[in-house]
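pasting for ref
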Amino acid sequence: PIRMHLRGLPLVRGGAAQVVMAHMFGMEAHTSFFVKSSLFLFVLMTFGEMSQRCYCWAATAMLVWLLLTSSWIGMSNDDSIAIIAGLLLVRGLPIIVMRLLTIAATYPLALSFKYVKWIIPKYSIDAATFFNCDGCSAEVAERRKRAIEQLSASWKKKYPKCQEFSTELKKMISDLRFTSARCFPAFNGVVQEYLDPSMALERTEGVDVVDLDGNKSMDISGSYGVNVCGYETYKEFIETGWSSAKKQGLFLGSLDKTVLDNIAMLREISGHPEVSFHMSGTEAVMCAVRVARFNTGRKFCITFGGAYHGWWDGMQPVAGNERIPDDVLCLKDMSPLALKVIEVRKGEIAAVLINPLQCFHLNQSPPSDPVLSTNNRQVGPTPGYKEWLHKLRQTCTACGIPLIFDEVYTGFRLHPRGAQGAYDVKADIVCYGKTLGGGLPIGVVCGPKNLMARGDARRAARVNYVIGTFAGHPFVMATMNAFLKWLQKPETVKSYDVMAQNIDAFISKANAAFKEKNYPIKLTNWFSVWSILYTEPGRYHWMFQYYLKDAGVNLSWVGTGRLLFSLEWKKEDYDRLLERLLVGCEAMKQGGWWEPPVANIKVKLMTEIGGALVKNIFGASA
């Protein structure tokens, strides 16, 4: 036989050669190590994506193993496993590094919420401990009890029709039952026995709202962000719109000159050539994300910690959404690591979605009284946010990733061109809603042709179906037209500056008054969005919203968390509001609600939550 020498081993042609080839690496002694290593790498590479990567990598490994052990190559199982482990290591290391980087950049609650939601217990503080759960004296507890009883009795006389209306409506509308719980959850049971803050509207008058009982209240709820112009101005838009649209009635599916006029104005405002109409801000975001995924062919959408992009469960990664989306990466806002993740994973990212409102409460959910356990509210304009948006814009441009601005809330509130105008940043796609409808429901998406396309130019079966029955409704288009024409007036543009000056003066004057009278509150604002901060620890700060209502101030269900001014407010209105804020403050002080806590609030909270958790674990009623 003709002998060959390879690696010092004699090889013989024919069957003997295959035997030697099968054990050429001599890995039999290390097979267990390579099997364990392969399994470990496999788990790290596919964790959280079992439906996709798992099957792909398992199939690839099997094909490689079949090839190496086939008669063509003839390697042993041991050597084949060693080679597969090596290939997994080469391919797996970049994936593992990318995953670790993503975890480091991820908003912490997005990582933990799917587990935490099953752990945090719901519990109630009973009437016996309601008034002294901060360790106060018996005298202070009695003051608080008398105060809430007096307030309850007063409301029964002041709001009889509103309370009757609310009681009946709660039987039929779960939304109202949900939004009636306006304080820290543990206190809701007792508070709702005394107070119902629901307001049944009769009419609006300037900055005031008038309820069914004839009570006037200054509105700082802003109608969930819609009221930018002022209620009287929206009445004009609706009347103007109806006079134009009533001749068309309900006819849908055909557009008219009003729509073309709107598109021309929206193109100028957004800086983009194409426009898509929808019926809500949530729908607008759904459309923007959908067209971005379709036209980039990528899966992931980047959002940032605490940002709200509508109630759609495909874009809400934490509280409020039972189905946690697996195609959304929720990162830390203003984090250099977030930019690095975008760079590293650019081939997977369809869009980066920004809600500029996060500048006011960075990496936090929207502020509200239901989460106010003490003076733990931290809101206010974030320094460096404009520079961050510019860095994000540069990163998205360099990586070829569309940047989407969710301007449903901020559009036309910050600036006539929204956050794009306020921060001098141009997004690739812009979503509008709320006030743009001129008082009626609306959602709008603006973007370039290549990102707004609904079909594939080369593949007939690839169609991106985004449409709605009432999109482009004649009445909505007409009121929008009235709003957009109003927005173009020089006096409108000037009114934004006047409002900013009035708000700055109000905030300064109010904070000076609170400090002088030793009230533990402080106001902060971001453009016309503002909030009330509490400067001292306390378990009853959420009670302030009830005394504000009694003083003639209307708030939304988030209480003192997020408040809004409109362009309609005049200097005398701000002065009148300050008077009512001070009345509410004095009532809080006299009622004993702002007495300094005796017990450590954090310890009390942990004790209560721990006790409720134990009860839940052992099946007792919390």
